[in-house]
């Protein structure tokens, strides 16, 4: 069974909710907008109704559109903490190209193109089925970096140089994921794919991306976690 984030109590930390006698304005811990609130947790977290109800694809797209982030891994970690993003699931297939496109266009001062490119990435990512890592031998996180490259380069099946680059980045991401083995872990595969994409972006399309070193905090929600056998495992 897949463990999930707390569904009772606070969505951030699981603590008991405290209901307020009078509504007050608080900043949502997820979207950071100020909203009228009638409850917060004992640790003073508040999550607005819109964020409570958001589906993962919509959440990812909206946050990437307004984000000024230039580190795709840092952004991915923030998005994956949202309660709608499961420990494992096909939402990660869109998350990977979304954070890469966000970092890329923020670095290139191309924010005017971001909305269109995010929409196209989401459309393509929705065709990648869940469980493709095991059933098809092609993890959706790796395909996600191929989607990123294809969208940036406007590649088609008839492209020449772009065709090679899109397939090369996917192949490198798949190789990194395969090297780190199973069982499935969408977080490990996302981190691995983003590492490859950042290096590839600097070498082949001339846009360096600095990415933070990962110390995974998602492992308590993963029954199949490799523990110290994973390169991203958070040491105690």
What is the 3D shape? globular
| Physical arrangement of strands within the biggest beta sheet | 1-2
Could you name the ranges where pLDDT drops below 50 across 5 or more consecutive residues? 1-7
What structural class should be given to the helix and strand makeup?
mainly alpha
> What value does the average pLDDT take?
90
The percentage helix is 40-55%
Number of helices: 9
Quick take:
The protein is mostly helical and 236 residues long. The chain has 9 helices and 2 strands. Strands 1-2 form a two-stranded antiparallel ribbon.
How would you characterize the overall build of this protein?
This protein has 236 residues and is mostly helical. The protein contains 9 helices and 2 strands; from the N terminus they run E-E-H-H-H-H-H-H-H-H-H. It has 2 domains: 35 residues, no CATH class; 175 residues, no CATH class. Strands 1-2 form a two-stranded antiparallel ribbon. Helix 2 packs parallel to helix 4 and helix 8 packs antiparallel against helix 9. The protein starts with 16 loop residues before the first strand and ends in a 32-residue tail after the last helix.
Q: Helices, strands, pairings?
A:
Blueprint: E1 17-27, E2 34-41, H1 49-53, H2 56-66, H3 72-80, H4 91-107, H5 111-125, H6 132-135, H7 140-153, H8 161-180, H9 186-204
Antiparallel strand pairs: 1-2
Which key features would you list for this structure?
single chain, two-stranded antiparallel sheet, 9 helices, 8% strand, disordered N terminus, 236 residues, mainly alpha
